[in-house]
Design goal:
- The chain has 330 residues and is an alpha+beta fold.
- The chain folds into two domains: 89 residues; 218 residues, 3-Layer(aba) Sandwich (Glutaredoxin), CATH 3.40.30.
- The protein is 51% helix and 11% strand.
- It has a five-stranded mixed beta sheet with strand order 5-7-6-8-9, sandwiched between helices.
- Helix 8 runs antiparallel to helix 9.
Amino acid sequence: MSLKDRLSAALDATPPENTRRRDTLHAALAAGDNDSDIGAALSRLIEAREQLAITLDHNGQSEQAAEELKEISSLWLLYPEGAPGAAGAKARGAKPAGKAKRSALLTRTQMIIAGAALVVVAVALVVLLRPSDDSDTAAASTGQAIAVYKDDHTLGNPKAAITLLEYAAPVCPHCAHFTAEEFPILKREFIDTGRIFYIFRVFPLRPQDGAVEGIARCLPKDRYFPYIEMMFREQPQWDPDGYDVPDVEGAIVKLAGREGLPPEKAKQCINDPATQDALNQSSQDAQLRYQVEGTPTFVMNGQVVNLPPGQKTLDVLRLRINSLLAGTGH
């Protein structure tokens, strides 16, 4: 029996109340028609659930963690004996292959920034794997759909021929360079002219990214991009990655004052659970949909853009954009 058939049979046998298992099986089956694509998707989904089990255990939720591990074990057993790759090795009890170099999942484990804990919680996979009822979809006739969520920050025409999604991290120096030197040109040539619909999402590399995003989402919507741009520009004042900053949280809180946020309000924004939930969701979604591991990462009409070393990001993006526009007659 093929893996697709095994998953379909398992889905039919899963009680309706077990929504988590049903959503995992649905998502794996939706990954493609061949067992290779389905197996790769199922492997990623199970690994995400493994990370959730670790998070639950760290939070002292041992019963929930045990239930999650029980589900994980039953999902691995769906692979036929001798299935290829890491998934097959796991199914036979062998040591699994190594995971990606960088996991975007942030947990409720305390992450200390100069004595202040930033809390980020794991979220249900059903939310991560498909657009919510509050989402819309941007799609060009020449490409794949990109889910657009209600809390996304966007620029340009939603009906543009091209949707460009950028994953960036406030601590990322390459993102800062692109924002300062290249994005203004991209905006002038393609976003302001209505040919690109642009979506920006934070993909956290460090806890400080969560702090910056927390403050950004506390601000009026029209101040989101100016604040993010300011934090990129002021990285030497607060970014611990490569700079000697004795009080990182204090520096972030101080810079929030430029947007009129008093210190106590800024700290509340940093630790707002709803904001951190959304950030964690976006991070997981980036990994599961596009296998994002670092920043900046660009997704154009559903396809990740390869950025060869030594080439300007804008040059690569412009070449892909013009190629797509030529195909649409724009």
